[in-house]
Amino acid sequence: MTNKKKATKKQPPKHAKKVPSKKAPMKHASAGTNPQRVSAILAKLDEAYPNATCELNHENAFQLLIATILSAQCTDVRVNKVTQELYKKYTKPEDFAYANPAELEKEIRPTGFFRNKTKSIMGASKAIVENFAGQVPRTMEEMLTLPGVARKTANVVLGTAYGIASGIVVDTHVLRLSERLDLTHNEDPKKVEQDLMAVIPQNKWIKFSHQLIWHGRRVCAARKPKCSDCNLESLCYSKDKTI
Predict the structure, then answer these.
(1) 152, 182, 195, 207: which is the annotated catalytic residue?
(2) What pLDDT digit, counting tens, does each position of 64-83 carry?
């Protein structure tokens, strides 16, 4: 009779190394926000666009508010053509607040989304007349109570008309260039604005947005950026670079 050996389970070596579990890569703070690099970018923008400002034609804060609402998904050039005639007929907030909606829609139709813009313009105008004695508010909190007004529009009006730096205008150009310049890793405009406010000195907020918008329109286009003409080229390592 033979003795059968009992099967034994193989035990792992005492000093076996544990294989680390794979984790999703962490998002690190943007390397592009190094203070020295940011200062260099601001200096280059000052060099290229010392007189950058808002390109929407206006004579006062209220006209700028109307023009900014109209500029959504529309070029400033087209908005300026529309407002040139519009402001001859509508000279004060009351005129817009109690306008004939059908007529106003027809007059601003070339800017696109004219029905929604008409509601915003009339709503904001009425709020200004009834809640702010006909004057465009001077704080972000009050601006945001106006129908059709979000942070971008409020920042344009507060910064350009009143010189109040409550934030940074984040339009399509600022959004694109902030990512290309590695100043943010976010895509949401509100988060991008917070990222920029954290690295750009407050006394530069107003001019910085104007300069990025000018640069986006003139050099750093969405599809074919003119990198050979860009004075920021040496500071830029975007994957979209054409040189």
Answers:
(1) 152
(2) 999 999 999 999 999 999 99
Query: If you average pLDDT over residues 107-135, what whole number do you get?
Result: 98
116 and 186 belong to one structural domain: no
Q: Could you tell me the pTM of the whole model?
A: 0.85
- Does residue 25 sit within a domain? no
Same domain (yes/no): 78, 154? yes
Question: How many structural domains are present in the chain?
Answer: 2
- In the structure, what pLDDT confidence band is assigned to residue 31 with cuts at 50, 70 and 90? confident
Transcribe 179-241 into DSSP letters: HHTTS-S--SHHHHHHHHHHHS-GGGHHHHHHHHHHHHHHT--SSS--GGG-TTGGG---TT-
- Which amino acid, one-letter code, is at 30? S
> Is residue 152 annotated as a catalytic residue, yes or no?
yes
Tell whether 213 is covered by a domain.
Answer: yes
Among this protein's residues, is 182 annotated catalytic? no
74: domain CATH number is 1.10.340.30
By residue range, what is the domain housing residue 141? 61-162
pLDDT digits (tens, 9 = 90+) for 155-168: 999 999 999 999 99
